Amino acid sequence: MLLEVIATSLDDVQSAVRAGADRIELVTGLLEGGMTPSIGLMEEAVRLSAVPVHVMIRPHNQSFHYDRHDIKVMLKDIEVAKRAGAAGIVVGALTSDARVDKQALNILLEGTEGLAVTFHRAFDDTRNMDEALDDLLVFRQVNRILTSGGRPSVLDAEETIKRLVRRTKGTAIHLLAGSGLTVETLSGFIQETGVREVHFGRGVRIGNRTEGRIDENRIMTIKQLQRNLSRD
């Protein structure tokens, strides 16, 4: 079972890694849902992290529908992330009618050989998540979907997550569940849904606040819970 933690600073990265996080999602603008971090932050995060760093590729928070200018920016950011040594990228794009934008993805993923690719929570904004999953299964580069099951809190979407876990079993795509998880609810959620990767942001921050610092004790508790579940 893997734990991914959102980091917005080098302090976040070091705290998360020290406490036992398995992977870092590096973003800026967490209050806006996460956007592309600076080149300097990418480079230093990769240098300091002992675990894989996945970089958010999102040029703005206006929507997940991108024009050709946005795509050009995103391509440059992907190249920068790759040069910085990132292990992966976190990206997503939708059409104006809320389907996976396969045309945009074809362009964006062309140069991602060697990078892990997570399709982010734009997935939750699609008109139909099963349809979106079918669309994403076509892309050999995409190996992960971050989702809250279409709800603000993943805890209100256990049946959806369980269904998506079943649908991705035996495919190249792993389901990464996030948004609304807490230390207290994690064990029950994992047992109910069968999900093997979880994603934490506010849930591992002091006061459950987006602007709060990483609480290393919460991460250590989560890792112990995961170890206990793995033994069961």
UniProtKB/TrEMBL annotation:
Keywords: Cytoplasm. It is found in: Cytoplasm. It comes from the Bacteria. GO terms for cellular component: cytoplasm. Gene3D superfamilies: Copper homeostasis (CutC) domain (3.20.20.380). Its main location: cytoplasm. Pfam families: CutC. One of its GO terms (molecular function) is copper ion binding. Coiled coil: none annotated. Belongs to the CutC family. This is PF03932 family protein CutC.
